[in-house]
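Try it yourself: sequence plus adenosine-5'-[phenylalaninyl-phosphate], in.
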Amino acid sequence: MKNQIDALRLRFADEIGKVSTQDELETLRVAFLGKKGEVTNLLKNLRDVPNEEKKEAGQLINTLKTEVETAIARKTDELREAALNAAIQGAKRYNPTLPAGEEHGSYHPITLVQRDLEEIFASMGFTIEDYAEVVNDYQCFESLNIPPYHPARDMQDTFYLSNGQLLKTQTSAAQNHIMKKYGAPLRAIFPGRCFRNEATDACHENTFFQMEGLMIDRDISISNLIYFMKTMLSEVFGRPVNVRLRPGYFPFTEPGFELDINCEICGGKGCPSCKNSGWLELCPCGMVHPNVLREGGIDPEEYTGFAFGLGLTRLVMMKYGVKDIRDLNSGSLKVLSQFESE
Ligand code: FA5
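Structure, out:
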């Protein structure tokens, strides 16, 4: 039996030396350790070995079995490492010295218009602020004079998170933070992504951009508000645009206005982009409500201010003649490649 075991050990050593793939290794494993394999057969044959030799023979076979298993495991690792090295060698290396291709990407039109607006407002002394997308009830509603159970909450369908926070429905959510950060006087714009749990159509998305503006100082009046609105729009379009101002209700303004733009897609005749009205709600605005100033730590007896909430995504629609707002979120290269990069 001992001779038989030694011969098998030599044969295994010879055969594993020739193995160069995982498949060959698996075949070898089955040939030695499988149900009908050489080592398994030796164990089965133990019953024919005389009793006095059985113990030693059993130990010798088990030692061989362990050696075979260890050698197969080691070989598996070797083959895996060799395959990995071959893949790395064969991989095409990035060569930074090669000339760049002709094709290049472009900025999203919302980014382009946002940057235009930032430049316009920066030139008028406004700071540009960034704010979170996940906010709390106080930021989005309570600090804006919208207490719990106020019916105005129904004006915006909100995505609530399981931890009680919510996805910002309006950039106005940053007003209180900005007031507390700077105090009065202040001039700031804060663009940002907003989310509303509402059905989509040609002029409504559930994810869209707004740009809030806030100016607080002594003696700020509605005429200042109208001046900034007009300047902003004529600068963005590079020409005067037809707008109308009408009364609007927002708990955080007193008084409040709706600023609509004459639909640039149909020239005011009426089309799906403006819901056949010829006008599109673009930039609601108003004088900041005294309660909101007070909540932001600013004395409404001393300071007044205006705020606006520009529908940035809708402005992009109007500026570039995009008929359906959903195209701007589609990520379609066909849409995006029409806009030049800078
Ligand atoms: C507001 O969000 C107010 N926070 C705006 C405001 C700020 C008023 C400061 C007064 C003072 P409103 O819900 O109307 O208001 O949204 C403002 C603008 O965002 C709209 O006029 C529109 O241009 C845009 N907008 C609103 N909902 C959507 C939507 N689902 N898809 C695309 N644009 C939208």
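One thing you can check immediately is this: The first helix runs from residue 2 to 18.
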